[in-house]
């Protein structure tokens, strides 16, 4: 098929972008990548259309090149297309470089054994260096754009394989002082320097002469993969993440070796060179550069943080969030070694004033608040029991950041977090006109509870109230002056709006025991003080199931006895039984026995009566420790599926499909040639008795139509099973691999699934005979088929080796059903139908002792190599 037109490609790309997965699963999906690579060399398509094709390969490399071999082939083809471009300026050079780089990186083909990698890396380094690659490869007008693109490609490859450019540090450093794109070269050198320092420190080596050696990028020698192979290829991401900067393995290892004076001097010069040119970069690129260099030098002996001081002076007043983030990352990395007290005060005041600006969009406002919360001096450390250093952030500085009920939830919680930090330092009432932070906190929480208590109020108000309460308990744990009013306020909230019981249950699961236990006591008192016929009985039972324990048994049982008469529906009865279960686990006996007897007789639902009867039997016959074990989760799978078994986790497991080792084996039997479709005969063999077996098959690629599942009622080991017939519906006559998945039930009642070894459909498994011609018309029928293959088809001739049985034995073993004309033992004409609509014709004539020449014709040229391989392997199969 020739190249597609521009309109055809536009329609095809539109269908792909609409649903990439559906397109790749369709009949055109398999050929998309191959057609794309082929049409890039077509002269009938414009450069604009080819650029759109390359853009697709940049956006969806995993779909177009799904494995290593496909990525290798794609990268090789893209590089060949790049080399074949004429020497005039072209819009394809940069997209081709990016596409080849993306194919290798996304497909996992980058490595020393990849031919495309060995071609691409010297090419990229030569373009980045501005070298003359000969043959007018780089027109003068494209020199600088191609140099920048090559740097970006090298940076992507260095990120995939850290240490890849370790041997080119000296070359990159020399390029930075020449005329060229400053930003791409700076980021590339910084990344390569950081990776090299980390990897060399891990193996206990130094930089040696890496910063001074000028390596020729196109010298023709093999690429040095030593540093890549010595590292494990896993480094922290390049995005600034300063709270985690103290925990990286790479940074800790940087202190393992001190560099020699010469190495330290060259490293310092390289860092200064990068920092001196950083002002020419965009804000995002500057932040990336500062973070990379800060990580590379953090903890490195002989490299003082004062190298960053000029940049710090320049950036302390920046209005760019990315640069401000980079400054905070330097502070987290170096602390007092780089920042003076005046610097810290200036930076903190700047963050505080910026966070109060009324015109800030919500994301920016939250960013400033997050920076204030993460500022190291706002989290002073000190030994337990001793007084820590005071907060750098005081009430006077952040009085404009106090939370209000008018703020949106995210901003309110962030500001509340700041207020909690102030309350941790607030031991006494503040002097002067400002209210105490602790008093302000209590008023704010009271306002949040009032909003959450509104009848039919939005659920979001209650959610914010509980989020704020949890934040206060986490930040101010151990301060009873704050926790006591919080507990009583939450109890009052439940009294007013018991339908928030689910929020209270979640809240109790999250808080520490210091708050959980007293809150459970007051909530239990609130519940049992209500009459059992309360309209909110379902919420009271839900809450009581969470807070009930061995205390206040009498009041709890009285409440339950009064509530039992009003539990008329299934939900209320189940809630009542959950409370009984909680009391059982808490060791309550006494009046619980009488209550369970009453429930076992009076409950209308049989499932509820069974539960009550079970609880009564357990309570009457088991002591406390054994009772707790009986009510806990069971480790054994249940034998029955009754409602009683729902009390343990084993019943839940019985209802789930579990992954298990394969208990069935499949083998491919003899090939049948009857019917309109090829059929694969499968022979199953069970290792254990299994039931309701369902075998599901999936074909890799789009070679065959979806296959139907095969069902077997029962399989037992030692019993012969009938063969299973799997009809095949090829979309093209080619071998295939079938992935097999089994779903079955074991003798214990569990439903399991397992992956079986793949099955392979051979080329001969697709053979079907043509209808038998009338008696005596075989030769004419064959000649008609023979002539119909050309000119659209193809023909060839192969040598088929013969075994000791000769040509007649070979035909009888393999080709007997397909013989149309036979003149044994020297001549056979064979006609094979290949679904869906192809044919393969063979003339076996003039056989010799060691082989026979076979003339082939087919109407599908793709069949020829498959047929040749099949014929050459016939003698070995005898």
TrEMBL record:
Keywords: Protein transport, Transport. Residues 781-873 form the AP5B1 C-terminal domain. Residues 263-627 form the AP5B1 middle domain. Residues 690-759 form the AP-5 complex subunit beta-1 beta-barrel domain. GO terms for biological process: endosomal transport; protein transport. Pfam families: AP5B1_barrel (PF21589), AP5B1_C (PF21590), AP5B1_middle (PF21588), AP5B1_N (PF21587). Residues 250-260 have a biased composition (Basic and acidic residues). This is AP-5 complex subunit beta-1. The keyword Transport applies. The keyword Protein transport applies. Residues 234-260 are annotated as: Disordered. Residues 35-104 form the AP-5 complex subunit beta-1 N-terminal domain. PANTHER family: AP-5 COMPLEX SUBUNIT BETA-1. The gene is AP5B1. GO terms for cellular component: AP-type membrane coat adaptor complex; lysosomal membrane. InterPro entries: AP5B1 (IPR038741), AP5B1_barrel (IPR048980), AP5B1_C (IPR048981), AP5B1_middle (IPR048979), AP5B1_N (IPR048978).
């Amino acid at each position: 098929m020739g190249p597609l037109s521009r309109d055809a490609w536009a329609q095809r790309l539109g269908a792909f972008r609409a649903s990439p997965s559906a397109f790749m699963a369709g009949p055109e999906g398999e050929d998309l990548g191959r057609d794309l690579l082929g049409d890039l060399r077509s002269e009938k398509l414009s450069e604009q259309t080819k650029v759109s094709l390359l853009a697709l390969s940049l956006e969806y490399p995993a779909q177009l090149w799904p494995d290593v071999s496909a990525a290798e082939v794609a990268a090789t083809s893209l590089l060949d297309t790049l080399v074949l471009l004429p020497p005039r300026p072209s819009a394809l050079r940069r997209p081709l470089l990016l596409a080849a780089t993306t194919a290798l990186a996304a497909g996992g083909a980058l490595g020393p054994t990849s031919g495309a990698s060995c071609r691409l890396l010297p090419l990229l380094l030569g373009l980045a260096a501005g070298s003359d690659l000969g043959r007018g490869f780089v027109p003068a007008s494209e020199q600088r754009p191609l140099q920048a693109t090559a740097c970006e490609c090298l940076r992507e490859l260095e990120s995939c394989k850290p240490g890849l450019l370790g041997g080119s540090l000296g070359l990159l450093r020399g390029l930075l002082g020449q005329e060229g794109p400053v930003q791409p070269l700076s980021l590339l050198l910084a990344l390569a320097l950081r990776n090299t320092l980390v990897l060399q420190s891990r193996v206990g080596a130094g930089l040696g002469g890496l910063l001074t050696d000028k390596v020729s990028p196109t010298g023709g020698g093999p690429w040095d993969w030593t540093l890549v192979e010595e590292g494990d290829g896993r480094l922290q991401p390049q995005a600034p993440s300063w709270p985690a900067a103290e925990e990286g393995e790479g940074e800790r290892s940087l202190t393992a070796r001190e560099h020699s004076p010469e190495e330290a001097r060259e490293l310092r010069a390289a860092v200064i060179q990068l920092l001196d040119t950083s002002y020419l970069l965009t804000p995002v690129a500057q932040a990336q550069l500062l973070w990379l260099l800060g990580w590379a030098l953090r903890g490195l002996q002989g490299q003082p943080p004062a190298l960053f001081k000029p940049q710090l002076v320049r950036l302390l007043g920046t209005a760019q969030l990315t640069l401000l983030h980079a400054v905070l990352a330097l502070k987290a990395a170096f602390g007092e070694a780089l920042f003076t007290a005046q610097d810290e005060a200036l930076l903190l005041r700047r963050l505080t004033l910026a966070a109060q600006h009324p015109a800030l969009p919500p994301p920016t406002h939250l960013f400033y608040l997050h920076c204030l919360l993460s500022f190291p001096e706002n989290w002073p450390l000190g030994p337990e029991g001793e007084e820590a250093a005071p907060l750098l952030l005081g009430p006077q500085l952040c009085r404009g950041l106090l939370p209000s009920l008018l703020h949106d939830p995210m901003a309110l919680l962030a500001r509340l977090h700041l207020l909690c930090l102030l309350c941790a330092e607030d031991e006494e009432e503040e002097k002067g006109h400002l209210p105490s932070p602790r008093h302000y906190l209590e008023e704010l929480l009271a306002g949040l509870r009032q909003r959450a208590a509104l009848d039919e109020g939005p659920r979001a108000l209650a959610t914010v109230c509980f989020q704020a309460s949890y934040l206060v308990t986490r930040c101010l744990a151990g301060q009873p002056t704050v926790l006591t009013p919080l507990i009583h306020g939450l109890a009052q909230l439940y009294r007013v709006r018991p339908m928030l019981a689910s929020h209270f249950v979640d809240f109790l699961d999250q808080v520490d025991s210091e708050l959980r236990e007293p809150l459970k006591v007051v909530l239990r008192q609130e519940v049992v003080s209500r009459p059992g016929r309360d309209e909110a009985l379902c919420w009271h039972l839900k809450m009581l199931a969470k807070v009930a324990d061995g205390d206040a048994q009498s009041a709890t049982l009285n409440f339950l006895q009064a509530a039992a008469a009003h539990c008329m529906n299934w939900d209320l009865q189940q809630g009542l039984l959950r409370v009984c279960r909680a009391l059982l686990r808490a060791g309550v006996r006494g009046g619980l026995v009488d209550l369970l007897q009453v429930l076992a007789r009076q409950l209308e639902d049989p499932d509820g009566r069974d539960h009550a009867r079970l609880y009564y039997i357990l309570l009457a016959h088991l002591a406390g420790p054994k009772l707790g074990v009986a009510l806990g989760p069971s480790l054994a799978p249940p034998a029955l599926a009754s409602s009683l078994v729902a009390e343990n986790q084993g019943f839940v497991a019985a209802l789930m499909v579990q992954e298990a080792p394969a208990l069935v084996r499949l083998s491919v039997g003899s090939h049948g040639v009857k019917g309109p479709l090829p059929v694969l005969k499968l022979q199953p063999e069970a290792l254990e008795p299994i039931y309701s077996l369902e075998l599901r098959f999936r074909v890799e690629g789009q070679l065959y139509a979806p296959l139907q599942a095969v069902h077997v009622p029962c399989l037992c080991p030692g019993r012969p099973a009938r063969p299973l017939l799997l009809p095949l519906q090829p979309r093209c006559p080619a071998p295939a691999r079938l992935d097999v998945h089994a779903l079955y039930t074991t003798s214990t009642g569990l439903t399991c699934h397992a992956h079986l070894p793949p099955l392979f459909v051979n080329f001969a498994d697709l053979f079907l005979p043509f209808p038998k011609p009338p008696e005596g018309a075989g030769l004419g029928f064959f000649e008609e088929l023979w002539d119909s293959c050309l000119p659209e088809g193809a023909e060839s001739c192969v040598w088929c080796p013969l075994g000791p049985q000769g040509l007649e034995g070979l035909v009888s073993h393999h080709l007997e059903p397909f013989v149309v004309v036979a003149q044994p033992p020297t001549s056979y004409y064979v006609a094979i139908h290949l679904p869906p609509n192809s044919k393969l014709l063979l003339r076996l004539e003039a056989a010799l002792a060691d082989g026979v020449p076979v003339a082939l014709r087919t109407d599908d040229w793709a069949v020829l190599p498959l047929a040749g391989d099949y014929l050459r392997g016939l003698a070995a199969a005898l």
